[in-house]
Amino acid sequence: MKTDLESLNKLTKIFNDRWGIQLNIYKDTFHRTDMWFEWNGQTKDVEVKKRRFNSDKYPTTIINEDKFLELLKNRACLVVMFDDCWYVCKNVAKAYLKTTPMYARHTTDFGGNYEWSNKVELDLNKFTKYDY
């Protein structure tokens, strides 16, 4: 499922204004990542996570293990948008801390059901931080 369209549009504008990079939103709602762009003749996938709190609340962020494995497989970037700033990770393997089974909603944006699943904890210090 896609992160809310407002966040994706905001990120599209940021990438274009800051670096002249045109982010494209995948039209398929069930695509494994949210967006893509062309870089040096190659397509680069981007996954976007929206966190509805400030970045200093936790020193890490978590994602579903299946999403982490998909990002590794496709060498995709991960963008985490907080209320106060946003972070980019070009290599999620370098940010990996641990995998832990947790009882949580499968997805927060779409009213997902609570279930046990493996969550991957990533070190935000391995990301690049940007102000809005």
Instruction: Write the H/E string, N to C.
Output: HEEEEHEEHEEE
* Outline: globular
What is the CATH-assigned architecture? Answer: 3-Layer(aba) Sandwich
Strand content: 35-45%
**Biggest β-sheet: strands ordered side by side in the sheet:** 1-2-3-5-6-9
CATH class: Alpha Beta
Helical fraction equals 10-25%
Number of strands: 9
Q: What is the arithmetic mean of pLDDT?
A: 92
The separation of the N and C termini measures 24 Å
Secondary structure tally, helices: 3
Supply the helix-strand structural class: alpha+beta
What is the third-level CATH name, the topology?
Trna Endonuclease, Chain: A, domain 1
Describe the 3D structure.
This protein is α+β, with helices and mostly antiparallel strands. The protein has a single domain, classed as Trna Endonuclease, Chain: A, domain 1 (3-Layer(aba) Sandwich), CATH 3.40.1350. Helices cover 22% and strands 42% of the residues. It contains 3 helices and 9 strands. The strands form 2 sheets. A 6-stranded mixed sheet has the order 1-2-3-5-6-9, covered by helices on one side. A 3-stranded antiparallel sheet has the order 4-8-7. The two termini are 24 Å apart. 22% of the residues are buried.
